[in-house]
Amino acid sequence: MDLIVEGIVKAFSLLISLDPEVLGITCLSLAVSGAATLISLFAGMSVGTVVALIDFPGKRIVISLINTGMGLPPVVVGLFVSIFLWRNGPFGFLEILYTPTAIVIAQAIIATPIVMGITLAAIQHLPRNLRLQILALGATRLQMVWMLMKEARLPLLAAVMAGFGGVISEVGASIMVGGNIKGYTRVLTTATVMETGKGNFDVAIALGIILLLLAFMINAILTQIQQRQRPR
Predict the structure, then answer these.
(1) From CA 153, how far away is CA 137, in angstroms rounded?
(2) What is the DSSP string of 174-212?
(3) pLDDT value of position 1
(4) Confidence at 107, pLDDT banded by 50, 70, 90
(5) Which residues of 209-225 are buried (b: 16+ CB within 10 A; e: fewer)?
(6) CA dist., res. 154 & res. 130, Å (int)
(7) Burial 81-99 (b: 16+ CB within 10 A, else e)
């Protein structure tokens, strides 16, 4: 219990003192996870919407793959991204392994199936006749898709929160492809693991609390937007 109290005190001490290292780690965590979430939103919502609206052979298999991807183990993602970005790998010439870019790639791969699966379910849940009604009113197919996404905006905002939550709290892939390099690729989750391994439990708890506060603030903003958009 004393460790938890010390961790809470340490967390507020680090925040109030504006510790440069902690601020750098926090800003990098937000930047990396934010970029990964944006990439996953573009890819996940696009593919999820297309799969939901188009009938094709093997659609159920594709949906099963998407649903399986929602539980993709981060360490497996980290393994394959490391192999592809390794100096002897297919993309080794890019020399981005152990950089923030590599972490963004790994986290985007983790978040994309989550966003894709929720988007797919949200669009499929809309009445099938709705798209026909929109087209009958003279809308183009792109306008129809946009209106369907607006109609499903509440679960789509939930997809944003789920995607961001999945990557901001991820640690396995970030360590494997980022290397946890101080001042360069160290994020809140990897720093917490490192401090725990060193026995600095007060610092680890402090970093964990900062991570929770960061996640809460972002999700609180998104929840506020979501609930404001809710039909009355």
Answers:
(1) 21
(2) HHHHHTT-TTTT--HHHHHHHHHHTT-HHHHHHHHHHHH
(3) 66
(4) very high
(5) bbbeebbeebbeebeee
(6) 17
(7) bbebbeeeeeeeeeebbbb
